[in-house]
């Protein structure tokens, strides 16, 4: 057992009536590995605006101590100045906790995690486990994300967990699937899969932030160009300031469309049990965990080829839209719903195999083999 793990992130946290709430997937990850440490110190962004959002859950473990720091982000002059002024404060705060830690876990791209990575060069003998979310392809990254990636490439004293498998991938950069499922979910998924028949009318689901970058506009456009009687239900899970706009654009679907806002994991899984297709024509991604969650229930993905998606999704288990081609998303969408039911069932059976890679149990095993064993 190690003494202390320090987690440095801009992950959302908030406190109400003495109870801390945190972003669900991260809470579950830390609960999974807490037995390896006497104490976990989690540095994250204070986000009282997230109060009541279903994706944030209670941090119940007494072994996890949270440190709430100011939120950092934005591109306006005022926001950039605020970020720069916070850097010295965060540097010494993070340094204070890192100096007493055995293992440090950073979650990038983010300002606090980037500061921690810079500090890592002062403590190369500690165990560093840096997670880079989003795409690892530098051609798709904004400047600051690309800069953080370049520093991680130099941090050979650490392990850098990335999405997908890349050509000329350095030895210290490890491919590590983000966990979102338990083995019990896989059992539930197999039960659900047996009931799927893939016959019109179909049920479609989108999970994510409601904006054009995620392809919501292309989804609504595609749905508007198929016979209404081929649509049973359409579920949009997620939220944004654009929600009302999309509700108006999708009004032609009448009571066949549902904009749910944020839902708990359990609620999302209930919708996935009834869904036929996952729609995600994003402009940029790493590997969206919603694909793995949907795969658990045999939901066939209709997705774009960005990030590391095609490292897992292909013609045998889904439908991939080549975003840089002249072919519109609508064409791939129509091909999917016009595919023979037997072929769709085969894709559904195949996609379940992808889900097995994204379990918390598999994640813990890989961490033990590739990260924690350094100090044991």
UniProtKB/TrEMBL annotation:
<feature type="transmembrane region" description="Helical">
    <location>
        <begin position="80"/>
        <end position="98"/>
    </location>
</feature>
<dbReference type="InterPro" id="IPR001296">
    <property type="entry name" value="Glyco_trans_1"/>
</dbReference>
<keyword id="KW-0812">Transmembrane</keyword>
<feature type="domain" description="Glycosyl transferase family 1">
    <location>
        <begin position="195"/>
        <end position="340"/>
    </location>
</feature>
<keyword id="KW-0472">Membrane</keyword>
<dbReference type="GO" id="GO:0016757">
    <property type="term" value="F:glycosyltransferase activity"/>
</dbReference>
<protein>
    <submittedName>
        <fullName>Glycosyltransferase involved in cell wall bisynthesis</fullName>
    </submittedName>
</protein>
<keyword id="KW-0808">Transferase</keyword>
<dbReference type="Pfam" id="PF00534">
    <property type="entry name" value="Glycos_transf_1"/>
</dbReference>
<keyword id="KW-1133">Transmembrane helix</keyword>
């Amino acid at each position: 057992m190690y003494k202390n793990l320090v987690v440095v992130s801009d992950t959302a946290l908030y406190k109400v009536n003495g109870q801390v709430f945190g972003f669900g997937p991260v809470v579950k990850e830390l609960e999974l590995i807490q037995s390896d440490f006497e104490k976990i110190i989690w540095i994250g962004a204070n986000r009282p605006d997230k109060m009541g959002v279903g994706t944030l859950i209670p941090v119940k473990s007494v072994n996890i101590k949270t440190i709430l720091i100011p939120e950092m982000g934005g591109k306006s002059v005022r926001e950039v100045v605020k970020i720069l002024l916070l850097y010295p404060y965060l540097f010494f705060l993070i340094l204070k906790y890192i100096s007493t830690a055995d293992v440090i876990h950073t979650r990038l791209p983010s300002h606090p995690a980037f500061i921690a990575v810079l500090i890592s060069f002062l403590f190369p003998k500690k165990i560093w486990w840096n997670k880079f979310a989003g795409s690892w392809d530098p051609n798709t990254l904004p400047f600051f994300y690309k800069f953080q990636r370049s520093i991680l490439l130099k941090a050979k004293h650490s392990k850098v967990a990335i999405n997908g498998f890349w050509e000329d991938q350095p030895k210290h950069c490890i491919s590590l699937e983000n966990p979102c499922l338990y083995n019990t979910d896989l059992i539930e998924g197999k039960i659900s899969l047996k009931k799927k028949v893939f016959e019109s009318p179909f049920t479609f689901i989108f999970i994510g932030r409601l904006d054009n970058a995620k392809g919501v506009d292309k989804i609504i456009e595609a749905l508007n160009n198929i016979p209404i009687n081929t649509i049973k239900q359409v579920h949009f899970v997620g939220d944004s300031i654009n929600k009302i706009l999309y509700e108006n654009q999708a009004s032609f679907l009448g009571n066949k469309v549902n904009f749910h806002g944020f839902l708990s994991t359990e609620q999302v899984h209930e919708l996935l049990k009834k869904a036929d297709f996952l729609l995600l024509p994003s402009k940029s991604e790493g590997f969206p965990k919603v694909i793995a969650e949907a795969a658990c229930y045999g939901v066939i993905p209709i997705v774009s080829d960005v990030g590391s998606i095609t490292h897992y999704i292909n013609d045998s288990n889904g439908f991939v839209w080549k975003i840089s081609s002249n072919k519109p998303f609508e064409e791939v969408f129509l091909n999917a719903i016009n595919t023979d039911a037997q072929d769709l069932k085969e894709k559904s059976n195949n996609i379940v195999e992808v889900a097995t890679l994204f379990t918390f149990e598999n994640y813990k095993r890989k961490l033990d083999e590739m990260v924690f064993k350094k100090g044991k």
